[in-house]
Input
Amino acid sequence: MFETFDHTADIGLRVFAETLEELFVDAARGLTSLLVENVGDVRPTLTETIQLAGTEIDYLLFDWLNELLFRFETNRLLCCDFNVRLSDRGLEATIRGETCDELRHRLVHEVKAITYHGLSVQHTQSGWQTELILDI
Output
């Protein structure tokens, strides 16, 4: 589950999940929802793999979202399906989506960057929680 919140000249993303892998998946879904209004219209026609090294969860989450944003900015890839596996060495993920078609996809925000400002990942009694700020 994710929600957004207002932040001065930016937008915040808050994510709650039972497992760490679900936290990464829901954060990716949250990012996609900030890019395109009609997320349900994104089709899983392309498949790509992402591998990221890292042991610090907060920085790994930052790198994950940054990689997804990079793929959107360079290849216009909108993702709708995420399979994330975390290990003691980093992240391995399979992502599925399609190239943005501005005739079908209603773009919402121009996300310029994922920021370190306010970045936190916490293990709670009910699972995991993260909060981060995106520059729009």
